[in-house]
Amino acid sequence: MVLDTSKYDLKIMKRIDNRADDPVCRVKYVRIRECNLYNKRHEVTVINGTVIINRVIRADSGNYRLTLDRSDGSETSRDLQVIVEAPIGSVEVSIICSSSGGMRVFCSSEGDQLLYSWTLNGDPLMDGNSSIDLDEGTDGNISCSVKNHVSHAQKTIRLKPCPADGSVGSVRSFSHLHETHVRKETGRSESEDEKIERRTCTHSRRFMRAAADHHIYEK
């Protein structure tokens, strides 16, 4: 941000090939004079030396260079990296009970560049993957936290003893399979929530294939 932009000729360049014809936006006397960087997108404005993009897209990611040309001929430049990521969706936690007695906890969510962390009864667990193995008899509340550069979310469930009689416990999320097929047969387009349901179903199918050798339950 520049406090008094009237004294400068600003140039914002997206560094693609590091050539003179890389996309650039020039601002002079607080007005955009030339800009092939944002292809006349109406949601892009420059206010007091700050470039504001009200609706970013993935293509806005990249390396940029901001150059300030002063009236005395001097120049100052600054390089910066812009990362655009999809925010995290709802977090789902599921558990598979092994026939050997242990359990594996799975965490899933939508979004980009996801980082996972786990806690058991508030104590951090030494595992940063989307799944974690627990010993038989592990009890308490397990939490999966998911974050990226733009958002974070968390889901906590209560661990249940694995069924001892070989039966499968509650699998309420599998009903999404039927609901999604019904929506497609109607020909109605999917909303964002319905797309998330469809992706959750794909995750659930993997659990169903494992059900022949494991006991499964979900919260």
UniProtKB/TrEMBL annotation:
Gene Ontology CC annotations of this record: membrane
Residue ranges, annotated region (Disordered): 179-199
Main location: membrane
Coiled coil: none
Cross-referenced InterPro entries: CD2/SLAM_rcpt, Ig-like_dom
Statement: the UniProt record of this protein carries the keyword Glycoprotein: yes
Keyword Membrane: yes
Subcellular location: Membrane
Keywords linked to the UniProt accession: Glycoprotein, Membrane, Signal
Segments forming domain Ig-like: 89-158
Name the record gives this protein: Uncharacterized protein LOC122139666 isoform X1
Organism phylogeny: Eukaryota, Metazoa, Chordata, Craniata, Vertebrata
Gene: LOC122139666
